[in-house]
Write a sequence for this structure.
């Protein structure tokens, strides 16, 4: 049974907020959407909600309370704002020094400030996996293909890299092929990283593995690693052998479609456990 009555969805870009809204509607669960300007998918205008700028923290809180939301979930892609030209209301302006200080530690620290702000107003902040449990990646293979021993070696190395870089708040992904580190996700995001792998010379990306997992110490209620059909499509284009995510702490949008596309492209999609990628 849900521990909230009405869920506020703070929606950035991409398919994830759309899936959460659709799941709430299908279950008859009361919900309300704060559509972040310049980010949220236009289709969310068909659901109950309002538009807000990322800096309008006061307005976001007021709307959530006005709509009797007692819980909130952050979902979707939000680009780091230009703080010098950020449109902010009084509450957002009051938070700005704290957010700018957090920005020096990385995007994860910025999101943590937003979580703390909502919690200070009495809202329950939940993770996407609690709002829509079927999005959480399970352990094992999705589709017909499974990783080889070489693939598992690449998975372990990529997983260790993401773990080791956690204190620097770099990214949640890395690509390794036959032991060679091809790419580490930074500000460009997963799609651009995969596109970059596809441009590497001499086919060195061929047979590589993309790994996505949370960073150590990450606030797991926000910004979990996410993959979907576009991830598989770009991984195939780059020549990779597969995509692996950490089971239980990563999200897969439209898992059946992801598995079907992976089969079509000849790739594996795999949910690994922490034990499987532990250093040996």
């Amino acid at each position: 049974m849900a521990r909230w009555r009405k869920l506020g969805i703070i929606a950035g870009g991409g398919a994830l907020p759309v899936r959460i809204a659709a799941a709430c509607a299908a279950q008859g669960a009361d919900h309300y959407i704060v559509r972040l300007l310049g980010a949220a998918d236009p289709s969310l205008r068909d659901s109950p909600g309002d538009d807000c700028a990322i800096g309008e923290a006061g307005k976001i809180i007021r709307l959530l309370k006005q709509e009797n939301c007692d819980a909130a979930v952050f979902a979707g892609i939000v680009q780091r704002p230009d703080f010098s030209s950020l449109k902010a209301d009084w509450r957002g302006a009051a938070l700005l020094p704290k957010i700018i200080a957090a920005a020096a530690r990385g995007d994860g620290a910025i999101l943590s400030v937003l979580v703390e702000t909502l919690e200070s107003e009495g809202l329950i902040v939940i993770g996407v996996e609690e709002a829509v449990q079927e999005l959480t990646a399970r352990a094992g293979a999705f589709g017909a293909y499974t990783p080889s021993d070489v693939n598992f070696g690449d998975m372990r190395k990529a997983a260790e890299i993401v773990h080791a870089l956690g204190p620097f708040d770099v990214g949640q992904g890395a690509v390794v092929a036959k032991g060679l580190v091809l790419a580490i996700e930074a500000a460009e995001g997963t799609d651009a990283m995969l596109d970059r792998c596809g441009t590497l010379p001499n086919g060195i990306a061929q047979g590589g593995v993309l790994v996505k997992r949370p960073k150590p110490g990450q606030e797991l209620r926000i910004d979990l690693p996410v993959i979907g059909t576009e991830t598989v499509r770009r991984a195939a284009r780059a020549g990779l052998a597969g995509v692996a995510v950490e089971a239980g702490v990563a999200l897969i949008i439209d898992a059946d479609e992801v598995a079907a596309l992976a089969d079509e492209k000849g790739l594996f999609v795999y949910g690994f456990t922490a034990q499987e990628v532990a250093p040996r």
About this structure: The chain has a mean pLDDT of 91. The CA atoms of residues 37 and 53 lie 5 Å apart.
